[in-house]
Design goal:
456 residues; mainly alpha; 3-stranded mixed sheet; 16 helices; 6 strands
Length: 456
Amino acid sequence: MQKHSSRRDRMKGLFSRFLRNRFSLEEDKAPRDEVAASISKGVEFRGVNLWILIFATMTASLGLNVNSPAVIIGAMLISPIMGPIIGAGLALGINDFDLLKKSLRNFALMMTVAMVASTLYFLISPLSANSSELLARTTPTAYDVLIALFGGMAGMVAQSRRDKSSTVIPGVAIATALIPPLCTAGFGIATWQLRFFIGALYLFLINSVFIAMASYIIVRLLKYQQVVLVDKARQRRRNAVMAAIMLVVFIPSVIIGLRMVHISLFEAKADRFVSQVFNFPQTRVIEKTTSFGRGKEPSRIELLLVGETLDESVIENARTQLDNYGLESSELVVRQAGSSDRVDIISLQHSYAELIAEKNRRIDRMSAQLEHYRLYDTGIEGISREAGVVIPNLGSMSLTKGVSFDSRGAALDTLLICVFSPADPSLDVDRETFTEWLRIRTGIDKVKLFVETESR
């Protein structure tokens, strides 16, 4: 019994050491002071960093304006915007109050400069349409929270290594997407669209908070030595302030993050419910609107149907199935298009059919014109070889098919123009035979012959 127990303990010890070795963060770990100095340098926004931020903001604004994901990704890569955020996470992790103040000051400066630059761009830009890239930066989801959390962890791990030449930091910059929401907030200010400003700024703050939180978690896992002051009373006051800041940042972000998760789960359940319950051969769902409940207000699913009208009993049966999809407290509102709507849809279909028919007619006419202007089927090489056999003393020739017009510009007839040169200029070419042969060979009645003479 003791042998089995000792063997089991050895296996557990080996497995535990294997996991520690595999998942250890100690390998290539940089000293705390080196990491703090590197991050503190990236926190400061002055000189080069400030100009790069402005240029990255302008680039991202241009990408959002013209709806170009490639340009937006490029702006994320060159933007130094993550410096103050990771600096705040490090400061919270090592109790460095001075670094925290520096990070928050530069964070505020970075936000202000980026939004002012993007606002100025959108004020002078001739393009003011709401592109899909702009709209995508106004509504945070649970996925944004998770991306910021895991991306921030990856970024802090990369910052804590001696070798910082990896592609982790650029990848984190792309994944967390911090600069586009700030540019979208500037668009909201420039165009007086409050929902763009609030939604984009909200997304930016959510991403920033969770990146800072992720950095804090990694710093605590790395067990960096914390800053300790000689004055114990001052140390306690600073610790209290740090704890208050952490609570102010952490609690709302967790609440917001959980709500986003609930919203995402509700929308996924609603999509599954609609796709499975409202699957009728003669009726289609053309519009679906969902709203997650807030307080005493229940969640709501609104559908607009077209096609065969459903009986109220069918809709009531669908309401009874809400519980089966985890939508117990949700309301289902179904609106069905009336007969006039169906007539409009049919008319729209007829309009599209007429449009397609007209396009087909134009294509047929253009094909006929193209066929009309084709000179021959076998090609110029076949005609030239035959002409050399049929017409003696023929040296070279060129053929052109054209149209003759009258003085008013009206087309009169199609004609074939042939420019030829004799092999021996001292001998004539039988022009009558040549003309008749070209007329029969190409099927064009009107033929014009011109002799090309070389100047000596």
